[in-house]
């Protein structure tokens, strides 16, 4: 009698449907939440990895570009002023020297013909005591560099000159090599630029 | 209702997998292209350096005068191991005069550079350098 009454009661069916739907809805909801959380977590991990990788790649590109451009400027230009190596050491700073270049001052009329011919006087001017100022003028502030020159002896290259900062703890080093002439001999010029990650 | 939901989920999973594969492929392709561009640019600069040094050194002119490219070959062999190189000298009729190649390597995707020079007999020649990573 009580059951019959319940079945006739419109709220009985509504109550039953409500609970059934709620159960299915809860399961769907639970699966959806788990899936959503998994995707969100995976996205966060991928985002973090990609951001780190991009940052690392950008730093690497920056340091490689700096090394490549500095080496080009050193070999292909004479600097500004072109006779900067004649300046007294106390006047060697970024106020008096706007650009460093190792090419010899060989000018015919309006043509500059000194690219790829390294001036020994300019090279040895960049020594350990002028290292920090040279670094700033070259636009390598915040980095350390090592400049090495090896001359060709007819069969291979032998060490001739080197100037270097402290590259000991650097985790990111870019190295570029170019070729030129010095003292009438072919020479290999290597530049290492280093930075902490 | 449940079947539809399952089908929808499979669709979504497939879509995510395909999108992931495409993104990864694009990322690796772009990374590779970006890196190789820098290398080729530097290789081109080295090829210009080699020709300039050989010309300013007088090695190109001497090779034409003596008819021997041995000094050029020796210099090419002294270049770093990862650089493979060839230098060919042409006369003003574009005929090959001399050629020198680094030993033990093949050039498959070279960068080119050329330099004109005048030899002792006042004839113009041009040297072509082909460099590649070995």
Strand content of chain B: 15-25%
Task: Count the domains of chain B.
Answer: 1
Largest contact between protein chains?
Answer: A-B, 27 and 21 residues
Structural class of chain B: alpha+beta
- Largest beta sheet: strand ordering of chain A: 5-8-9-6-7
Spatial strand order of the main sheet of chain B: 2-1-4-3
How would you sum up the global shape of chain B? rod-shaped
Query: What proportion of the residues of chain A form beta strands (DSSP E)?
Result: 15-25%
State the share of residues found in helices of chain A, binned by percent. Answer: 40-55%
Number of helices of chain A: 4
Helix content of chain B: 40-55%
Number of strands of chain B: 4
The pLDDT mean of chain B sits at: 87
Characterize the main sheet of chain A.
5 strands, mixed
Supply the helix-strand structural class of chain A.
Answer: alpha+beta
Would you spell out the secondary-structure blueprint of this structure?
The complex is a heterodimer of chains A (197) and B (134).
Chain A: H1 2-8, H2 10-76, E1 79-80, E2 99-100, E3 107-108, E4 111-112, E5 117-118, H3 120-125, H4 131-137, E6 144-152, E7 157-164, E8 172-182, E9 185-195
Chain B: H1 2-57, H2 59-66, H3 70-77, E1 83-90, E2 96-101, E3 111-118, E4 124-133
Antiparallel strand pairs in B: 1-2, 1-4, 3-4
Structure explained in plain terms:
The complex is a heterodimer of chains A (197) and B (134). With 197 residues, chain A is an alpha+beta fold. Helix content of chain A is 44%, strand content 25%. Chain A is built from four helices and nine strands. A five-stranded mixed beta sheet of chain A has the order 5-8-9-6-7. In chain A, strands 1-2 form a two-stranded antiparallel ribbon. In chain A, strands 3-4 form a two-stranded antiparallel ribbon. The N and C termini of chain A lie far apart (82 Å). Chain B has one domain (2-133). At the A-B interface, α2, β8 and β9 of A face α1 of B.
